[in-house]
Structure formats: C-alpha cells, structure tokens
Specification:
Layout: H1 2-38, H2 46-54, E1 59-65, E2 70-75, E3 81-86, E4 93-97, E5 102-106, E6 118-123, E7 129-133, E8 138-142, E9 148-152, E10 162-168, E11 171-176, E12 183-187, E13 193-197, E14 199-200, E15 208-209, E16 212-217, E17 223-227, E18 232-236, E19 242-246, E20 252-257, E21 262-267, E22 272-277, E23 284-289, E24 302-307, E25 313-317, E26 322-327
Parallel strand pairs: 14-15
Antiparallel strand pairs: 1-26, 2-3, 3-4, 4-5, 6-7, 7-8, 8-9, 10-11, 11-12, 12-13, 16-17, 17-18, 18-19, 20-21, 21-22, 22-23, 24-25, 25-26
Amino acid sequence: MTKPNSKRGSRLTRLIILEFLSLVLVANVAAWTYYLATHKPLLAALPVVEAATRSVAPHYLFSIQGIPEPVGVTVTPDGSRIYVAESGGERMIRAFDRDGKQLFSFAPPNTQPLNRAPVYLASHATGKIYVTDRLRHAVDVYDAGGNFQAAIKPPVNDGWSPLGIRLDGDRLLVTDVTQGKHRIVQMNKDGRLALLFGREGNGTGADELWFPNSMVVDARGRVYISDSNNARVQILDSSGTWLATLRGFSLPRGMTIDAEQRLYIVDGIGQIVRVFDVAGDDPEVLFEFGDYGAGDGEFNYPNDIAVDTTGRLYIADRASNRIQVWAY
C-alpha cells in the first residue's frame, strides 16, 4: 500500500514544482515586457535585493602570518596600510601593505619589550596613528611612517590606564581601566576633557563597566562599548546616556562599523564575529561567521577587527599569530 501513496506524492510534488516554475516564468516575461515598453526597471524589487545582500556573510581571503599574539589592528580608509599591535615577541607595532607584506615596525622611543605593551590602535584621516600602551599607561601618537609624535597626557587628575581607543571626527574616545574607575574618557582634538561617563561595576547597573575594551560610533552618533568582563555591549547616546544593551556574548572585544552600518563584534571566547544592522532605530542581528580552530577562516581567541572603505575586514587572530583578511 505504501508504493501507490509514494507515487501519488511524487506526482503531487512534481505538479507543485511545475506550477512554481510557471509562475516564475510568467513573472519574468511580465518584467521583461514592462522594461521593453518603458525602458525602466521594476524598482520595487530593489529593496529585496539590498536586504538579501546585507545578510550575506563575508568570505575568507588570506592571512598575514608570523605576528606574535596580535591584539590590535587598524587600517587606513583605503586599505593601503594595515597597522598591527603585537602583545608577544618584541611588542612592536607592525605596518603592512594591502597584500600583507611587512613595510616597517616601530615602538615608543627609549623603551624595551619588557616595559611597553601596545594594545589597541586608531587611525586618523591625516595619517596619524594612535596607540594605547597598558604598561606605560599612555596614548602614543605616530605619523604614518611610524615616527613618534607625542604622548597624550591624562585629561583627568587621578591618572588613567588607557585600553581601547577610537577616533570620531575631532573627538577621541578612550576606555580607561584604572583600578576602581573603569570608565569612558572623551576628549576634544586638543586633548582636553570633554566628557567622562561610566563607573566600575559587575553589570547590575546600566552605567557599570568592567574592563571596557573597544568603542565604535554609528552614523547616528550612538556609542557602542564592549563591556568585556560583563559579557555585553552597552549602547549610549553622544552625551553618555544609556540607551540599550546587547547580550549573548562570552567575551566581547574589538568592534568596527562599515559603510553599510553593519556592526561587527569579536567574541574572544566564543571564537566568532557577530554582525548587527545598526542603520535603524534598534540593532538587528544579521549573521555571524567563524569557528574555533587554526585553519583558514577559523579563530583562536580573536581580539580585534577593523574595516576599510572597500569592505575588507582585518581580524587579529591572537593565539594563531596572524591577521585574517575577509571580504564580500
């Protein structure tokens, strides 16, 4: 008795498929006829294509190998130069071209590997590179060629311990992890304090931070903070007022936002990059990519991420001693 039912099911399936294909054919013929008559495309279809494209994950391109425990990465807008902070080896900042060829390396003057620890970096439109140093409690400024320019003095009287750093127009945002005072320091272009917000805490309060690592600013001026040890990302307005919280992370670290207003968040223990659409009023989950391992496209405690204007992504794959390059 099962065989006749199976045959009827197969015939029904074929009829459904044929009907679907017929509808697709009719729709295509109608669209083509419309175009021939008006020489205009069917504009209503465009948003569907755009939405689908935004949800497509990037693909792995190649890796820049042999960097001792990279923890921070930044890139010039056109992607022509990549800067990487290494936490192992000589603890240098290394510069690479777009193809991953090393150009030069540099470090703060009058320092040795034992008394310097570069972590996060930020690049300015002028070509200047800003680097936080955990051991020296400093923010160092270099020109595009790696020549030391200055060290930014603490804008607060009780000192600071800079960790994350972000440039947003004429303002400089720094995560300060001074013991008992985990917070965000915002300065104007001449280094003067403009805003101070957040306090150390285990995450019971919206304004509590525990080892905030990275920050990004979206097109609307909202500030995203990877509140790492509280396993969340805090969203604030430009004045430091709490707006919302993103959860579900193990250890959120580096972040970046691309031209399409896609927010990328590196999860150092989750071994993935999670991606959100932040173009609207509320962040929406788009996709995630990566997995644990040492192969192509696999992560081993990733720590930071950067993006250029072409959409290329650069990920500091710390325990695999490499920078992974991804693209759309």
